[in-house]
Give the backbone structure.
Amino acid sequence: MRSATVTYRTAETEIELLLELDGHGQYVIDTGLGFLDHLLAQLALHGLFDLQLRARGDVAVDPHHTVEDTALALGQALDQALGSRAGIVRIGAAHVPMDEALAFVAIDLSGRPFARTEVSWSGPAVGGLPVTLVAHFLRSFAAAARATVHAELLAGEDDHHKAEALFKALGRALDMASRLDPRRGEAIPSTKQVL
């Protein structure tokens, strides 16, 4: 199985995680931030990744460091689990509805980090998490995963539904992009022959 174990420590956070790409959507997640746990559970479940993640951070100061470093650690794990990226589909995209919300995420496991997020929020926070941290999570994840991520909210009113739809779509797109394509064999999916 394609998997990675990451330990990520700073003066502000301590994160340990195990990621298995070819999993069944099973997860055990505890970041100390309930809504972040909920979003990461959606990512694992709908991406069919097995994820064990424990994070401890200076949430008494602000959730920012925990969210950012969790995204960096998860991106590192994905990058490690993909290895050379030989044989993967590489590109994936998903539209995901969540009641009145509709999210779209496209991802290219290109080796080139980039993230673009277009979301209009109704309030400053959802589930105690500042909504600005959703885009920050995606940027940090894309940087560490060496991936291009485009995320858009196409419709929605409820901020909980908007955020959840985005993470479900990210999971579905990642599942598609990270799959092994039996037609590709061990070939790198790039004319450059490296990702």
